[in-house]
Amino acid sequence: MANLGRYEKKIGFKQSAFIIAEISANHYQKIDNAIKMIKAAKEAGADAVKFQVYTPDTITFNSNNDYFKIKSGKWKGQTLYELYKKAYTPWGWFKKLKTIADNLGLAFFATAFDKTAIDFLEDLKVPFHKIASFELIDLSLIEYAAKTKKPIILSTGMATIQEIREAVNIAKKSGSKDITLLKCVSSYPADPREMNLSTILDMKKRFGCRVGLSDHTLGTAVSIAAVCLGAIVVEKHFTLSRKIKTPDSSFSIEPIELKELVNSVRMAERAVGDVFYGPTAKEKTSLDFRRSLFAVKDISRGEQLTEENIRSIRPSCGIEPKYYKRILRKVARKDITRGTPLTWGLVR
Fold it and tell me: What is the distance of C-alpha 298 from the center of its chain?
């Protein structure tokens, strides 16, 4: 149970985004691929691996009528049943996959698409539950997941403010005290121009929840930007290779890209830092190269300081430049050699 507590706490770490490698259908229904992906995710530095728990029969209905046919997009021409039959993860794999992830120190969890999936995942003792964007309006499913009292992650693709509010309210009412919303655009791949990451800031304020990103864009730039805006979870579809054609491979990142994402996110977190003014520790040595007031010509005792014989130049050995106009009214107490930094003791 110690690991479980660590994973739950980590979602809430300040400025430490929880990075999820979403394996989804990218195992190509071969368990060896799924195992390789878990190990590759660990090597790349991910915090968690996520699968999806459904069967064609638990997520849709086997029918060829027009209601069930996909009419546009990358899956056009298939029925929903045909798509999910090619994409689902056999439930018999999960115990072994979770053991492998646990041994590697990765959080292992899954998106649940119906109540039987929640029950199945509870038996596996997953640390938290995830509800997909398309199921956000299934309030009875959210209620069932929330009653486990485990942290719950809700993706919000397509959702209106009212739909998100209803989902959050039912989760809270059902006992969930730990809710994370994921900003999401449910198109595959998503267009960065439609991501509207500023919504992350509004979601945090409006719903009083932690907020992250489920990112279906190509590349890693959008995820990094989201972290800079306060995203504390980043979920990204992951594949061993886009050459392995699966329903999700075209908008997934490969191991080297996942590693780059992790490294870039960690760098971005360090760069965001805290509110801070003044010189940093390493900037202090640069203070010497600020400007100050110098004599740029020889100045005789009693001679007035003018724009011709003093200037604001680097380095910062003399009086600060903000006193330039004030010192122009002064005269030299003694001879001042060209190249001498001005001090108050040299003038009167």
Answer: 60
User: Considering 272, 300, 321, which residue would you say is the last residue of a domain?
Assistant: 272
State how far Cα 25 lies from the chain centre.
22
Within 8 A by CB and 6+ apart from 238, the residues are 21, 22, 23, 26, 37, 40, 41, 46, 49, 252, 253, 254, 255, 258
Residue range of the domain that includes 246: 2-272
Token output for 251: 């908008």
Q: What is the DSSP string of 235-257?
A: EEEB-S-TTS--TTGGG-B-HHH
Which of 270, 262, 233 minimizes the C-alpha distance to 12?
A: 233
Alpha-carbon gap, residue 3 to 338, rounded angstroms = 69
**Count of structural domains within the chain:** 2
pLDDT, residue 333, reads 97
3-state secondary structure of 192: helix
Residues 186 and 90 in one domain: yes
Higher pLDDT, 260 or 7: 260
The per-residue pLDDT for 245 is 85
